[in-house]
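Below is how a single chain appears once it has passed through the pipeline. First comes the sequence as given, then the structure the pipeline wrote out for it. We keep one example in the README because the format questions we get most often are answered faster by looking than by reading.
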Amino acid sequence: MSQLHHLSRQDIKALTEARLTFGPRGRAMDTSTSLQFSLDHARAREAVLSELDVPRIQKALKAAGLDSQTVTSAAGTRDIFIRRPDLGRLLPEATAETLHNESPLDVALLLADGLSAIAAALNGPAFVTALSKRLLARGLTIGKIVCARQARVAIGDRVAQALGAETVVVALGERPGLSAADSLGVYITHRPKATTQDSARNCISNIREAGTNVVDAAEQAEQLIVAMRETGLSGVELSMARAENTLTSQSD
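Resulting structure:
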């Protein structure tokens, strides 16, 4: 605390992206703080309402040598997606029938809008490309990258079943806050099915320039996928098994 006492306001602000205020407290925020709040709120709102830029994403994936295909959840439109989260988790039967491979996949990769299509466009292609290279180097099959519109995490379960994939990775925009609207989250599930609970997923969050970089995130995702294939577990069960193994190794 004594060290912080000697820091200037600018030094303290440089330590965190959290919203900070200094000086005396009156009945209202000062003009600068009020304007910054309005700007951050507008950015968060824009992120939630934005549409997935599929052509831009597919162009970036193609440049990396990755084929892709597009699906839209049962929500259909952005307005419905925001009002009906449940529909964003469902894949229409007619759409599911368009997804197929000559043989089952080891890993299905999805890039979805979630609650920030901006985050998906900014950080998604780089993450998917980095992870794809790692998985292909291990001899794992991934098929086409699936770009999902109006999508929540659980849509990946339906896509994986349609593709016959053993593991599914869903990268999508996280709920924006007032300090970041470009954060990508990654959810990995082993042997997904329609009744899979969120506790069966492993998550890597805050993937963006000011958070976890895409290279580190791809490495973490690869390690999780390998562990899932070795143990047959994912989510809480995998985390507990890894923690137990760590404790056992330290005690030996």
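The beta strands are 68-72, 105-114, 145-149, 165-173, 184-190, 201-207.

See the next section for the split statistics.
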